[in-house]
UniProtKB/TrEMBL annotation, chain A:
Gene3D superfamilies: ABC transporter involved in vitamin B12 uptake, BtuC
Transmembrane segments: 6-27, 34-52, 58-78, 90-109, 142-161, 173-196, 202-222, 229-248, 254-273
Compartments it resides in: Cell membrane
Annotated protein name in UniProt: Iron ABC transporter
Pfam entry (one): ABC-3
One GO cellular component term: ATP-binding cassette (ABC) transporter complex
Keyword terms of this UniProt record: Cell membrane, Membrane, Transmembrane, Transmembrane helix, Transport
From TrEMBL, chain B:
Gene Ontology molecular function terms on file: ATP binding; ATP hydrolysis activity
InterPro entries linked: AAA+_ATPase, ABC_transporter-like_ATP-bd, ABC_transporter-like_CS, Metal_Ion_Import_ABC, P-loop_NTPase
CDD domains the record matches: ABC_Metallic_Cations
Species: Paenibacillus solani
Record's protein name: Manganese ABC transporter ATP-binding protein
Length: 300, 242
């Protein structure tokens, strides 16, 4: 595959997994948790690197899951002891992220892992760092990891689809009929963590938040059905990835930045044009209503 | 036979003790209203009994056994305001959620479950709204959907948190008819209720609560001016003249 092909495929995989996970993130009103986890996985990655001296897939995923769960547990712990939810998130993630940054600066700092890379990602390098996969041949490591994570995300979401739905809509009912709400919460946090860390190389900690939240928020505006919302959210993620790449080529600028910008465009278009919630359609409705009123007046 | 036994139940929210030595028993086939001032711990009592909120001490037994063994026989209707009605789903889907416990892991609800859910919606007069997105329902209709979801669970003991709060008159009638039908079918229902004017007409038992049980028993014995004043302390502004 061509260099551009790999980049587009990698970015599309980011868009898909982030879009699907993001759909449930916004329905569970946890957008801020995504922001938090996208930063704290850095600590997980650095710690995994310090322990194993390797920056390979499995170690990073495990490090990210531990960091993500630690974030979720700490936020909950402070909140249950009287700290406001948003303040609790703010305190926990900045502190853990800061530890990650200090560790990078003092112990790790090398060509493979630095703070700028962690924050902004560098998708342009992805196609050069390859591994050999049986049957497929040479595949970029990041792309392979993203494909594996997407597979896990899709399987876990589909296998527990009705459980995700009920725990997102009405956790009290879910608990009362015996669904393990707390366990599912932490499984979901793990999904967010692995999605984030797999997307890390490609888009970095800041941009991954845009991929997680914005396509899902846009999809929410278009439909009243959960399954369609998730599909749309994934599609919007892919669309943003493509759009972002070509904007970056056109303006000769950061790919991850352009992709995040593209999610913003998708959202604004959705906000203006979506049939039920969109500003434009509301305006058309109002205009239509006024016209029919005038017609009635004209008749009388 | 008592279907629910609560013994010396204590619970707190943050550092405030909300329930203090709550003890009572509920007989099968009774329709009980839980009545008390704001902050009396009515909703908390339901949540603690259902293990949705931790207790400090005390025992709760359902049908002479533990909740974990009796989960399928216990139904819960949370406050309408406790969920996000903008959630992308329709009325039928919400009712179907009541069956998720019976559907089992890794399975999808089938045609049979769908028919059951439709029948429940129909019973609440909501069959025409099955495909309606839930944000487009009125408050009363949303409450009926919640009731339909409880009915489809086919439980033996129901806890309902303010099902009559902020609903229209038609919905109030529909819900009370349903509650009486449940009672006739030998089911037991406990309802957190806020409207003192209707207690005597709607419920055969009353649990007066203000952090602890002020009085509990048949409505005519318990719902007296003196007892209600005792439960509400100085905060009662209105009381039906007997």
């Amino acid at each position: 595959m061509t260099y551009t092909g790999w980049i587009l495929l990698t970015a599309s995989l980011v868009g898909l997994s982030c879009g699907i996970v993001g759909g449930f993130l916004i329905l569970r009103r946890m957008a801020m948790m995504a922001d938090a986890i996208s930063h704290t996985v850095l600590l997980g990655i650095v710690t995994a690197y310090l322990v194993t001296r390797e920056l390979s897939g499995p170690h990073m995923l495990i490090g990210a899951i531990i960091a993500g769960l630690l974030t979720a547990v700490l936020v909950q712990w402070f909140h249950s002891r009287g700290v406001q939810q948003d303040a609790s998130i703010g305190v926990v993630f900045t502190t853990l992220f800061a530890i990650g940054v200090i560790l990078i600066a003092t112990h790790v700092g090398n060509a493979h892992l630095d703070t700028k890379h962690a924050l902004m990602g560098e998708i342009t390098f992805v196609p050069w760092d390859v591994m050999h996969v049986p049957l497929l041949g040479e595949v970029p490591k990041a792309t392979f990891m993203l494909a594996a994570v997407l597979l896990v995300v899709v399987i876990v979401i589909l296998a527990f689809y009705k459980e995700w739905k009920i725990t997102s809509f009405d956790p009290a009912l879910a608990a009362s009929i015996g669904i393990p709400v707390v366990l599912l919460h932490y499984v979901f946090m793990s999904l967010v963590s692995i999605t984030t860390v797999a997307s890390f190389d490609a888009v970095g900690a800041i941009m991954v938040v845009a991929m997680l939240i914005t396509p899902a928020a846009a999809a929410y505006l278009w439909t009243d059905k959960l399954s369609i919302m998730l599909v749309l959210s994934g599609a919007f993620g892919v669309m943003s990835a493509f759009m972002g790449y070509y904007i970056a080529v056109w303006l000769d600028t950061s790919i991850s930045g352009s992709m995040a910008f593209a999610t913003g465009i998708v959202f604004v278009v959705s906000f203006l044009c979506s049939p039920k919630h969109g500003m434009l359609s509301r305006h058309v409705h109002r205009f239509g209503a006024r016209r029919s009123k005038e017609n009635i007046k004209g008749i009388s | 036979m008592s279907v629910l036994q609560v013994q010396d139940l204590n619970a707190s929210y943050r550092k405030n003790k909300v329930l203090h030595d709550v003890t009572f028993e509920v007989e099968q086939g009774s329709l009980t209203s839980i009545v008390g001032p704001n902050g009396a711990g009515k909703s908390t009592l339901l949540k603690v009994m259902l293990e949705l909120h931790p207790k400090l001490s005390g025992d709760v037994s359902f049908f002479g056994s533990s909740l974990s063994r009796m989960k399928t026989r216990v139904g819960y209707v949370p406050q309408r305001g406790s969920v996000d009605w903008d959630f992308p789903t329709d009325a039928l889907d919400v009712v179907m959620m009541g069956l998720y416990g019976q559907v089992g892991w890794f399975k999808r609800p089938n045609k049979h479950h769908k028919e059951k859910a439709m029948a429940s919606l129909d019973q609440m007069g909501m069959a025409d709204y099955a495909d309606r997105q839930i944000s487009q329902l009125s408050g009363g209709q949303q409450q009926r959907v919640f009731l339909a979801r409880a009915l489809v669970q086919n439980a033996d003991l129901y806890f309902m948190d303010e099902p009559l709060a902020g609903v229209d008159a038609a919905t109030e009638r529909a819900i009370m008819t349903t509650l009486n039908d449940l009672k006739m079918a030998g089911k037991t229902v406990m309802v957190v209720h806020h409207d003192l004017q209707t207690v005597e007409d709607y419920f055969d038992h009353v649990l007066l609560l203000n952090r602890t049980v002020i009085a509990h028993g048949k409505t005519e014995d318990v719902f007296t001016k003196e007892q209600v004043y005792r439960a509400y302390g100085g905060s009662l502004r209105w009381m039906k003249e007997a």
